[in-house]
Specification:
The complex is a heterodimer of chains A (254) and B (245).
Chain A: H1 2-27, H2 32-49, H3 57-88, H4 96-110, H5 114-125, H6 129-153, H7 157-165, H8 170-204, H9 213-221, H10 225-253
Helix pairs in contact in A: 2-10, 3-6, 3-8, 3-10, 4-6, 5-6, 6-8, 7-8, 8-10, 9-10
Chain B: E1 2-11, E2 15-25, E3 30-34, H1 41-48, E4 56-61, E5 64-65, H2 71-79, E6 81-84, H3 96-101, H4 120-132, H5 148-161, E7 166-170, H6 178-195, E8 198-202, H7 206-212, E9 215-220, E10 223-228, H8 235-242
The chains are: A mainly alpha (254), B alpha/beta (245).
Chain lengths: 254, 245
């Protein structure tokens, strides 16, 4: 019975998926022809960027610094805010009611990206780096809380039991049995979020939330491609430097 | 030193891990609990320092009723009951020395110890304990870089740092090969004879138990069905403990 149904079912599924892809490709107007026609324009765009105009270096560096500052402050505040949320959404710590409640809230807020929060906070507190920081804080706190809670759930109970057996107090058990297991993971997650937040903060300027994105957008709109190239170059260097430093630290931690 | 009276432990809904266990262990004894997996050996040991809370019955260690102890009393009691485990249960990322110092937590300053500070006395005791298991030269190594046998010796040093009156060893050699099994059992025996510490070991290997124990306790489905010197452990009794083989 099952054997006769299966191949038919599989065929229907495959046709269905194929039909969906056909519709999606049609809807999104994907076209190799258009891409081919666009090639000269791309080349033109890149040619116009060369050579980068380093007379705007000061602005580029100022923007880069602000992006770094937004990412660092936002990630740090989020890392702290995420601590209680992380413990409250860990299955082996929180009572079931709290656990489900907090998990639900986290999933809700995590489904919206940093950029959307930035629009919201720009409207609320005005232009500048502060709404950028707030946007980073909200999204990062939610995603770090999730990662924290998973680290807490994965804890090895053996050392906790061993420390308890020595006659240690609750705080000592937390400090010697629990923290050594989760702190390196927490730091690793925070650094990873810092890396992604640098990238996110780089485009926050597009919606007026501060940082290097403002300069990229402005020069592109003014069609000053050579200046834009300089800013992009600085952005690339900064992202790579942070990634490198962060991955070195993370390697040392595990 | 240790008295159990009518000890019962029921894991809900209906797993009876310990059933009416009564026994007394005198100071300085070396007792080995034998029995098949799931016979209640681990639960018995864990009831003694209340890592497992018994359903009913009484546990008295060094004159204190552990089952009725307040939180503070319980910590006082645990302080003098060292425990070692099958999986060693060291803090993997911490150094060997820091692991042994953890044995001093019950004595250390409650606040200063949270910042990793231990007094000079605690440091000296930790060093002395590491010396006893011949691992002082590895004091600065990370615990998880050591071999299994070495890790169990660190765990023994941690227990010794407690200056215990009793050491509970829950299947301390089940993760080790026969040679290391002897090394670890020899150390426990030496601690028992040299320092007069009461030692209670759970052990699933009968030949090891017979070689080392001066008194054996046979557990079967949570009941004590043998209690006596190894000479009295006959084939018939072994069959009753382990069932048909």
């Amino acid at each position: 019975m099952r054997k006769s149904i299966r191949p038919a079912l599989r065929l229907i599924c495959m046709l269905l998926v194929a039909a969906l892809y056909a519709k999606f490709l049609w809807d999104t107007e994907v076209s190799l022809l258009k891409l081919q026609r666009g090639l000269p324009w791309m080349a033109d765009f890149i040619v116009r960027m060369y050579p980068p105009d380093f007379s705007v270096l000061a602005s580029a560096l100022r923007g880069a610094l602000q992006t770094l500052e937004i990412a660092v402050i936002g990630t740090t505040l989020a890392a702290i805010l995420a601590l209680p949320l992380g413990f409250l959404s860990a299955r082996n710590i929180a009572p079931p009611k709290v656990f489900y409640g907090v998990r639900g809230v986290l999933n809700l807020f995590r489904s919206i990206d940093t950029m959307v929060y930035a629009l919201f906070f720009v409207a609320a507190v005005g232009l500048g780096p502060f709404p950028g920081v707030m946007a980073v804080v909200v999204y990062t706190a939610m995603s770090l809380a999730k990662l924290y809670s998973e680290a807490i759930e994965g804890i090895d109970t053996g050392p906790v039991e061993a420390i308890t057996a020595t006659g240690a107090s609750r705080l000592q058990i937390l400090r010697y049995g629990v923290m050594p297991q989760i702190i390196p993971l927490f730091i690793s997650y925070i650094l990873y979020r810092l890396e992604t937040n640098i990238r996110a903060a780089a485009i926050l300027g597009f919606v007026g939330a501060g940082g290097i994105g403002f300069y990229i957008q402005t020069y592109l709109r003014m069609m000053n491609y050579r200046a834009a190239a300089c800013v992009l170059l600085i952005l690339v260097v900064m992202v790579m430097a942070v990634d490198l430093a962060s991955s070195q630290i993370r390697k040392a931690l595990v | 030193m240790i008295t159990l009276r009518n000890l019962r432990k029921l894991y809900p809904p209906e797993t009876l891990a310990l059933d009416d266990c009564t026994m007394t262990i005198a100071p300085g004894e070396f007792v080995i609990v034998i029995g098949p997996s799931g016979s209640g050996k681990s639960t018995l040991l864990r009831c003694i320092n209340r890592l497992v809370v018994p359903t009913s019955g009484q546990v008295i260690v060094d004159g204190l009723d552990v089952t009725a102890a307040t939180r503070a009393e319980l910590r006082q009691a645990r302080r003098v009951i060292g425990m070692i485990f099958q999986q060693f249960n060291l803090i993997k990322r911490a150094s060997v020395m820091d692991n042994v110092l953890a044995g001093r937590l019950g004595y250390a300053h409650p606040v200063a110890s949270l910042f990793g500070y231990f007094g000079p006395d605690d440091q000296a005791i930790a060093e002395e304990s590491l010396q006893q298991v011949n691992l002082l030269e590895l004091a600065d190594r990370r615990a998880d870089t050591l071999s299994g046998g070495q890790q169990q010796r660190v765990a023994i040093a941690r227990a010794l740092a407690q200056h215990p009156k009793v050491i509970l060893a829950d299947e301390p050699t089940a993760s080790l090969d026969p040679k290391l099994t002897r090394v670890i059992m020899d150390i426990l025996k030496e601690i028992n004879q040299g320092q007069g510490i009461t030692v209670l070991v759970s052990q699933h290997l009968i030949d090891v138990a017979v070689t080392y124990g001066s008194r054996l306790i046979g557990l079967q489905s949570g009941r004590i069905i043998f209690d006596g010197p190894p000479q009295q452990l006959t084939e018939t009794i072994i069959q009753r403990i382990y069932g048909e083989m």
